[in-house]
C-alpha cells in the first residue's frame, strides 16, 4: 500500500453534506493514500499528457503500489476511489476503470476458479494490464442484439472474426476480454485474447477531443485463434455481459461526480481570485448563483451514488439503479462543467486553467457505458413494466 496511507483525509471542498464521513477509518486511510498519489503524481502532469495524447506509463507502478485493484472493499470505497481518480483526471480514472473494473470484473464475474487464479493475481499488481472489447464500429447502443464479431469452435480452439472500436487500453494491454457471438447457438460469449495473438490487431484512434490520455483503439480480429480454456466459463449469454456492465456503470456515475467536484473547485478558487470592477467576482450575485447551482448538482449526484453503493453492499442492486445514476449524474456533470467554463470566460478554454480538460472529458463520460437515452429506457422498463427497446 502507499506510504501515504494512514494520513488524515481533509474534506473535499464540494462535499458540503460530508458524505466522506460515511467511510470507515480504514477506508478513509485508503482514500488518503490514493488522493495523495493523485495530487503528487497525476495532477501535475495531466494537462501535458492530455495535450500530447500520450499515456504516462511511468505512473503504472504507482497505481500498483496503491494495492487497490481487485482488493476486497465495500462498494462505497470503490465508488469513492473512482470519484477521487476522476477528480484528478478523467482519463486516468478511465484507464483504471477499464483495467480493474471491466477487464478484471469480467474475469471475476464470469471466469472459472482456474481462470481467476490464472489471470487475476498479475492483474492486481498491474503486471498484466487488461482491456475490454464490446463496442463495435457499427454497433454501440444496439450491441446486445447487433453484435457482429463472431466466434466459431474449431476442435480445441475458438476462431474469432470481427472488429471492435473505442477499446480503452487496447494499444498496450496484455490481454483483452473480447465479446463475440457464437455461431452455433447465437449467444454472446466472452474470450480472453492475449497480446500478440495472431490475427489480433489494435490501432490507436487519433484526433480525439476527449480523454486524450486514454489509448483507445480500433481492434480487428482476423481468424484469431484462442484456446478453448480462454472462453470465460460463465459468460454464456449477453445477460452475463450485463452483470459486468451493471457494476461498472455505477463506477461511471461516481466518476461524473469526481469531474463535477473538480470543476466546482476550479470555478470557486477562480472566483475568489479573479477581480473585476475592483473586487473579486465571488462577490457578484450571478457568480454566486452559478456556484450554488454547481454545488447543488454535486451534492444531489453524490447522494445518489452513496445510496447506490449502499444498495450494492446490501445485495439489493438492480440494473435500473445503476442506469438511473449514470444517466442523471452525467447530465448534471455536463451542466456543471459548462457553468464552470462560463465562469472562467475566455480562460476556460485553455488548459492552463485546467477546466478545459474537464469540459472536454465530460463529453466522453456522458456517452460511454450507455448513453443517457439507453439508460433511460432501462429505468423506464423497470418502472413501467414495458420495454421501449426495438
From TrEMBL:
Domain Acyl-CoA dehydrogenase/oxidase C-terminal: 241-383
Domain named Acyl-CoA dehydrogenase/oxidase N-terminal: residues: 27-123
Cofactor: FAD
Keywords: FAD, Flavoprotein, Oxidoreductase
Location of the Acyl-CoA oxidase/dehydrogenase middle domain: 131-224
Gene3D superfamilies, A to Z: Acyl-CoA dehydrogenase/oxidase, N-terminal domain, Butyryl-CoA Dehydrogenase, subunit A, domain 2, Butyryl-CoA Dehydrogenase, subunit A, domain 3
InterPro entries in the cross-refs: ACX4-like (IPR045008), Acyl-CoA_DH_CS (IPR006089), Acyl-CoA_Oxase/DH_mid-dom (IPR006091), Acyl-CoA_Oxase/DH_mid-dom_sf (IPR046373), AcylCo_DH-like_C (IPR036250), AcylCo_DH/oxidase_C (IPR009075), AcylCoA_DH/ox_N (IPR013786), AcylCoA_DH/ox_N_sf (IPR037069)
Gene Ontology BP term (one): fatty acid beta-oxidation
Pfam families: Acyl-CoA_dh_1 (PF00441), Acyl-CoA_dh_M (PF02770), Acyl-CoA_dh_N (PF02771)
GO molecular function term, any single one: acyl-CoA dehydrogenase activity
Family, as annotated: Belongs to the acyl-CoA dehydrogenase family.
Protein name: Glutaryl-CoA dehydrogenase
UniProt source species: Winogradskya consettensis
Organism phylogeny: Bacteria, Bacillati, Actinomycetota, Actinomycetes, Micromonosporales
Gene: gcdH
Amino acid at each position: 500500500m502507499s506510504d501515504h496511507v494512514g494520513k488524515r483525509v481533509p474534506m473535499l471542498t464540494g462535499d458540503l453534506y460530508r458524505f466522506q464521513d460515511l467511510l470507515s477509518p480504514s477506508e478513509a486511510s485508503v482514500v488518503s493514500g490514493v488522493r495523495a498519489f493523485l495530487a503528487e503524481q497525476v495532477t501535475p502532469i495531466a494537462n501535458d499528457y492530455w495535450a500530447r495524447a500520450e499515456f504516462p506509463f511511468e505512473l503504472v507502478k504507482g497505481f500498483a503500489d496503491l494495492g487497490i485493484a481487485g482488493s476486497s472493499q465495500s462498494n462505497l470505497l470503490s465508488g469513492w476511489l473512482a470519484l477521487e481518480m476522476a477528480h484528478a483526471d478523467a482519463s486516468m480514472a478511465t484507464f483504471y476503470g477499464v483495467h480493474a473494473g471491466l477487464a478484471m470484473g469480467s474475469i471475476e464475474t464470469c471466469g472459472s476458479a482456474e481462470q481467476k487464479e490464472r489471470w487475476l493475481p498479475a492483474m492486481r499488481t498491474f503486471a498484466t494490464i487488461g482491456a475490454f472489447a464490446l463496442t463495435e464500429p457499427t454497433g454501440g447502443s444496439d450491441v446486445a442484439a447487433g453484435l457482429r464479431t463472431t466466434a466459431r469452435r474449431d476442435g480445441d480452439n475458438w476462431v474469432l472474426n470481427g472488429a471492435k472500436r473505442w477499446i480503452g487500453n487496447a494499444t498496450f494491454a496484455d490481454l483483452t476480454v473480447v465479446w463475440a457471438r457464437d455461431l452455433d447457438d447465437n449467444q454472446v460469449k466472452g474470450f480472453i485474447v492475449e497480446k500478440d495473438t495472431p490475427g489480433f490487431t489494435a490501432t490507436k484512434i487519433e484526433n480525439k477531443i476527449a480523454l486524450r490520455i486514454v489509448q483507445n483503439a480500433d481492434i480487428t480480429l482476423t481468424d484469431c485463434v484462442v484456446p478453448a480454456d480462454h472462453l470465460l466459463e460463465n459468460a454464456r449469454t449477453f445477460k452475463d455481459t450485463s452483470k459486468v456492465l451493471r457494476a461498472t456503470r455505477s463506477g461511471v456515475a461516481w466518476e461524473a461526480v469526481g469531474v463535477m467536484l473538480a470543476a466546482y473547485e476550479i470555478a470557486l478558487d477562480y472566483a475568489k481570485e479573479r477581480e473585476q470592477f475592483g473586487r473579486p467576482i465571488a462577490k457578484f450575485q450571478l457568480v454566486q448563483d452559478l456556484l450554488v447551482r454547481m454545488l447543488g448538482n454535486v451534492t444531489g449526484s453524490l447522494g445518489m451514488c452513496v445510496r447506490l453503493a449502499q444498495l450494492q453492499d446490501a445485495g439489493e442492486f438492480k440494473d435500473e439503479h445503476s442506469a438511473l445514476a449514470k444517466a442523471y449524474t452525467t447530465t448534471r456533470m455536463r451542466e456543471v462543467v459548462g457553468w464552470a467554463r462560463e465562469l472562467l470566460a475566455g480562460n476556460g478554454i485553455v488548459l492552463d486553467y485546467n477546466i478545459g480538460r474537464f469540459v472536454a472529458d465530460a463529453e466522453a463520460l456522458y456517452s460511454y457505458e450507455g448513453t443517457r437515452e439507453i439508460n433511460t429506457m432501462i429505468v423506464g422498463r423497470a418502472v413501467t413494466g414495458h420495454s421501449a427497446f426495438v
